[in-house]
Amino acid sequence: METVSVDLGERSYPIHIGAGLLAQPELLTPHLGNGKVVVISNEVVAPLYLDAVKALFADRFAEAIILPDGEQHKHLDTVAFIYDRLLAGKYDRKTILVALGGGVVGDITGFVAATYQRGVPFIQIPTTLLAQVDSSVGGKTGVNHARGKNMIGAFYQPECVLIDTDVLTSLPEREVKAGLAEVLKYGLIVDAPFFSWLESHSEEVVRLDPEFITQAIQICCKTKADVVARDEREGGVRALLNLGHTFGHAIETAAGYGTWLHGETVAMGMVMAADLSKRLGWIAAETASRVRAVLEQKYGMPVIPPADISVERYFELMASDKKVEQGTIRFILLRDIGEAVIEGGVDEQLLIQTLSAGDQLCR
Ligand code: NAD
Ligand code: GLY
Q1: What backbone phi and psi angles, to 5 degrees, belong to 35?
Q2: Which of 71, 175, 182, 232 does the annotation list as catalytic?
Q3: Ligand 2 centre and the CA of 135: distance in Å?
Q4: Beta-carbon neighbour count of residue 90 at 10 Å?
Q5: Centre of ligand 1 from the C-alpha of residue 140, in Å
Q6: d(CA 138, ligand 2 centre) in Å
Q7: Which pLDDT tens digit goes with each residue over 172-216?
Q8: Which candidate in 16, 149, 177, 249 is catalytic?
Q9: Whose CA is nearest to atom 32 of ligand 1?
Q10: Which ligand 2 atom sits closest to the C-alpha of 238?
């Protein structure tokens, strides 16, 4: 097992990473205070792992709240449903909420934890690769709004993140690949050697070879912990973690939540960001085509955005991106592999070319 620390003063917390951790209750004991535990999970994950998680908490376990599965339920109605259950159960401020699931369950649970009785502690037990390398770490919590992804939320850090790599064995292949988009993101933004390693070892990584996938998760968590420790509330460097997300969120919202997986739209968005960086003359054509080739050929990800989103619709959705400042859309772009930058005031004609490039992206 490896433990990565997220250093945020009195709100610091450990991320434990390894196989078989759902059978190690001692890792969580220091974080439980003397409250009862309420586990929040969903109808897919609970049948697989709830029994193991109940056993982690023994007589501290009070109940499980099981949500319907899917991004379309990452909604304020679901938050209200959980508040109702917590109030009906008379849970007080010492209650510990435990998120058992992917990024959807984690983001909802974190938001409930941030707001229920003005804040109760919570623990993340992420069960998708995407949640293990990204969403469970760093304290971004929240839900979607019909007008935009993750538009309602709070920064609120967990007490602990417990990553048991064994749970990935039940994850559908499409979900594994969606998670790998966020893994590749870390290489693209700050870690060129990691990107090259992922390029060379794609077969082992895609088939979740324990040695390779554990190493990848550790590297991602270390990078994310470092970025979050430097910029918890996204005043600067943390925005780089949004490579591909301005385009990706627009695609996810335009297509309807749940149509594309979040990681799939991030993959499309990263190829669009590489394409725009190439058009701006910041990266060579070969670098852009390498980005597309790694995602599309080595990792089998969808990289071409749906053709039915008009340029006007992109602009409308991107205008409500959280990185917009005084009406200017700010993009995360590449100066090289491993060197992402945040850039406002991008030439509109070049942007339109990227939005309309379709299969010609990065060609
Ligand atoms: P998800 O939570 O919908 O999980 C994907 C699917 O896998 C679901 O059907 C889920 O029930 C199922 N599942 C989960 N674990 C499983 C397992 N071990 N075995 C079998 N099936 C399993 O999606 P996700 O990709 O984990 O997360 C996407 C969400 O995360 C989006 O809402 C996105 O906005 C959010 N996100 C948040 C952050 C953040 O910093 N908070 C970062 C990235 C993404
Ligand atoms: N996933 C982006 C962030 O946590 O900042």
Answers
A1: -95, 170
A2: 182
A3: 7
A4: 7
A5: 14
A6: 7
A7: 999 999 999 999 999 999 999 999 999 999 999 999 999 999 999
A8: 249
A9: 104
A10: 5
Name residue 226's amino acid. Answer: D
Amino acid at 314: Y
What are the domain boundaries of the chain? Answer: 2-170, 173-360
21-29 — which CB contacts under 8 Å span 24+ positions? 21/162, 21/163, 21/164, 22/49, 22/52, 22/53, 22/56, 22/125, 22/162, 22/164, 22/166, 22/167, 23/52, 25/55, 25/56, 25/57, 25/58, 27/160, 27/162, 28/56, 28/57, 28/123, 28/160, 28/162
- Across 11-23, b (16+ Cβ under 10 Å) vs e yields eebbbbbbeebbe
Is 171 close to ligand 1, i.e. is its CB under 6 Å away? Answer: yes
Q: Tell me which DSSP letter residue 306 carries.
A: P
44 band by pLDDT with thresholds 50, 70 and 90:
very high
Nearest ligand 1 atom to the CA of 42 is 11
Helical axes 311-318 vs 348-355, angle rounded to 10°: 120
Q: 250 near 305, Cβ under 8 Å?
A: no
Domain 173-360 superfamily per CATH: Dehydroquinate synthase-like - alpha domain (1.20.1090.10)
pTM for the whole thing?
A: 0.97
- H helix or E strand, kind and range, residue 151: strand 148-155
Provide mean pLDDT across the span 224-230.
98
- At position 97, the amino acid (one-letter code) is L
Provide CATH code, domain 2-170. Answer: 3.40.50.1970
The mean per-residue pLDDT over the stretch 20-43 comes to 97
pLDDT tens-place string over residues 60-95: 999 999 999 999 999 999 999 999 999 999 999 999
- For 124, half-sphere exposure in the C-beta direction (CA atoms, 13 angstrom radius) is 36
> Which residue in 159, 175, 232, 234 is the catalytic one?
234
